[in-house]
C-alpha cells in the first residue's frame, strides 16, 4: 500500500506542477490510471487512495475486472483498438471511449448504447504523427468525421485522443499536441472540451498544450504483471 501511495502522490504532484507551469487552473487535468494487465486488487488499492478514473485496453480483461469491482464507483474508460464485433460490450460497460477512429464504430456504439444509461462519452483518435503502425484519423479527415459523428443520438462527442511518435526532446513533444489542439479550436465546436493527451514520458508537454486527461500506467502501478 505504501508503494502505491507514494507513486500515486508523485504522479498527482507532477500533474499539479505541470498545470501550474502552464498557467492553467488547478484540477483541470484528469488522471486516468491505465490498469491493463493489472489485477483488480491493484485497482482497489488506488481507488481507496482516491483515484476514480481507470482506463483499459483489452475488453475481456476489463469486463472481468468490472465484475470483481462492481461495488466500486469507478468511471471506466476504454482506450484500446475497437473491433466491430466488440462494440456492443464496450457500449454497455464503459463511460468513455477514447479510441474511435471511424464513423462505422461510432454508429455502432450509438446504436448499441443502452437507453437506461447516459450517452456514451467518446473521443476521436487522431494519428497526429501519421504513423502507419497506429490507428487514427488524419488531421485533414478530422473535420468530416466530427461532423458525421456529432449528430449520433446515444453518444456524446467530447474531444480527441492522440498518441504521437515518441520523442525525448521537450519542444518536439509539444509540437504534435499543439497542432491537434489548434486544429480542434479551429473547428469552433465548444462541445469538444476534452483532450486525451500524454502519458508518463510526455506528461508535462501534453499539459502545456491543453491536455485535460493524461493516461498513466507504470508510474502508478509499477512494472506490468499479467493476471
TrEMBL record:
PANTHER family: PROLINE SYNTHETASE CO-TRANSCRIBED BACTERIAL HOMOLOG PROTEIN, PYRIDOXAL PHOSPHATE HOMEOSTASIS PROTEIN
Keyword Nucleus tagged: no
Domain of life assignment: Bacteria
Role description: Pyridoxal 5'-phosphate (PLP)-binding protein, which is involved in PLP homeostasis.
Ranges where the Alanine racemase N-terminal domain occurs: 28-224
Residues recorded as bearing N6-(pyridoxal phosphate)lysine in the entry: 36
InterPro entries in the record: Ala_racemase_N, PLP-binding_barrel, PyrdxlP_homeostasis
Keywords tagged on the record: Pyridoxal phosphate
Protein name: Pyridoxal phosphate homeostasis protein
Cofactor or coenzyme needed: pyridoxal 5'-phosphate
GO molecular function terms attached to this record: pyridoxal phosphate binding
NCBIfam families hit by this protein: YggS family pyridoxal phosphate-dependent enzyme
Keyword rRNA-binding: no
Family as reported in the entry's similarity comment: Belongs to the pyridoxal phosphate-binding protein YggS/PROSC family.
The species this protein was found in: Methylomonas methanica (strain DSM 25384 / MC09)
Amino acid at each position: 500500500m505504501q508503494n502505491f501511495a507514494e507513486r500515486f502522490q508523485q504522479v498527482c504532484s507532477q500533474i499539479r506542477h505541470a498545470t501550474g507551469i502552464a498557467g492553467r487552473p488547478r484540477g483541470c487535468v484528469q488522471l486516468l490510471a491505465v490498469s491493463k494487465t493489472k489485477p483488480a486488487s491493484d485497482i482497489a488499492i488506488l481507488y481507496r487512495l482516491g483515484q476514480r478514473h481507470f482506463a483499459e485496453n483489452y475488453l475481456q480483461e476489463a469486463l472481468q475486472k468490472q465484475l470483481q469491482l462492481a461495488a466500486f464507483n469507478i468511471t471506466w474508460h476504454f482506450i484500446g483498438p475497437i473491433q466491430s464485433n466488440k462494440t456492443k460490450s464496450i457500449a454497455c460497460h464503459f463511460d468513455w471511449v477514447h479510441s474511435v477512429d471511424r464513423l462505422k464504430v461510432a454508429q455502432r456504439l450509438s446504436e448499441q448504447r443502452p437507453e437506461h444509461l447516459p450517452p456514451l462519452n467518446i473521443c476521436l483518435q487522431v494519428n497526429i504523427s501519421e504513423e502507419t503502425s497506429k490507428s487514427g484519423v488524419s488531421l485533414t479527415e478530422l473535420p468530416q468525421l466530427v461532423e458525421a459523428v456529432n449528430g449520433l443520438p446515444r453518444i456524446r462527442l467530447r474531444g480527441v485522443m492522440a498518441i504521437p511518435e515518441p520523442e525525448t526532446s521537450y519542444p518536439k513533444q509539444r509540437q504534435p499536441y499543439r497542432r491537434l489542439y489548434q486544429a480542434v479550436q479551429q473547428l469552433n465546436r465548444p462541445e469538444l472540451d476534452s483532450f486525451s493527451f500524454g502519458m508518463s514520458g510526455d506528461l508535462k508537454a501534453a499539459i502545456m498544450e491543453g491536455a485535460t486527461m493524461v493516461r498513466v500506467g507504470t508510474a502508478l502501478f509499477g512494472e506490468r504483471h499479467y493476471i
